[in-house]
Amino acid sequence: MGESSLRGRRVVLIGGTAGLGLATAHATAAAGGQVVVVSSRQATVDEALAELPADAQGETVDVRDEDEIKALFDRIGPFDHLVYTAGEPMKPVPVLTTEIRAIRQFFETRFWGAYAAVKYGAPHIRPGGSIVLSSGGSSQRPGPGWAAASSALGAMEALGRALAVELAPIRVNVVRPGMVRSEMWREYPAEVLEEMFRSTGSALPVGRIGETADVARSYVHLMEQQYATGSVITVDGGGLLV
């Protein structure tokens, strides 16, 4: 496979119907790939397919259900790349006042969902293929209330490195986005969110908040880049520097 194109390659994107996942689906299709977008809801799958190329396919799955994930990959069959961007909305949850079961739900989608997707998806990946997981900037610079999110995101990075060794020659990499304008922040009131985007963006070296399309390019790069595995690529507008 050449390093400049995904032409003719089949890419499964779990979480691929919104936010970073949908942006990556668009970028993958633009690079010539054939995408299979996966979500927990048929409605979001239908909405995504309406704006993707005609050869795009869609599936539904509950990533917290191991049997459903196994059945998903049995239906999909052989493919070339797996991208995992599924996750609960981001919001601070204080350790001392948050019930443990709520935190477990966060890990069920972000970490264990990815783990199961790799377990059942990897046997279907063709030679030369790869897996790209998702982390986030708070894995490196957590703020108050971000213990749960930071832990889950850090675990994803550790998982990516371990999988790169265990699953070789399948390449496994991780994208670590900073704050990006997406549905991931939908728990916040609109006016609060816009002010957060404005203040955060103005403090970054690039002078603006990230867009999903900015980060999607990194997922495509890691699928195309044949010499990268066990890597974590930070795309945060310089957020770790300030």
What topology does this entry show?
Layout: E1 10-14, H1 19-30, E2 34-39, H2 42-51, E3 57-60, H3 66-76, E4 79-84, H4 100-121, E5 125-134, H5 147-166, E6 171-177, E7 180-181, H6 190-203, E8 210-211, H7 212-224, E9 232-235
Parallel strand pairs: 1-2, 1-4, 2-3, 4-5, 5-6, 6-9, 7-8
Helix pairs in contact: 1-7, 3-4, 4-5
Task: Characterize the structure shown.
This protein has 242 residues and is α/β, with parallel strands linked by helices. Helices cover 42% and strands 19% of the residues. It contains 7 helices and 9 strands, in the order βαβαβαβαβαββαβαβ. It has helices spanning 19-30, 42-51, 66-76, 100-121, 147-166, 190-203, 212-224; strands at residues 10-14, 34-39, 57-60, 79-84, 125-134, 171-177, 180-181, 210-211, 232-235.
Write out key terms for the chains shown.
242 residues, alpha/beta, two-stranded parallel ribbon, 7 helices, 9 strands, 19% strand
Termini gap: 38 Å
Helix content: 40-55%
Which sequence of strands runs across the widest sheet? Answer: 3-2-1-4-5-6-9
Q: Give the integer mean of the pLDDT values.
A: 93
Brief summary:
This protein is α/β, with parallel strands linked by helices. It has helices at residues 19-30, 42-51, 66-76, 100-121, 147-166, 190-203, 212-224, and strands at 10-14, 34-39, 57-60, 79-84, 125-134, 171-177, 180-181, 210-211, 232-235.
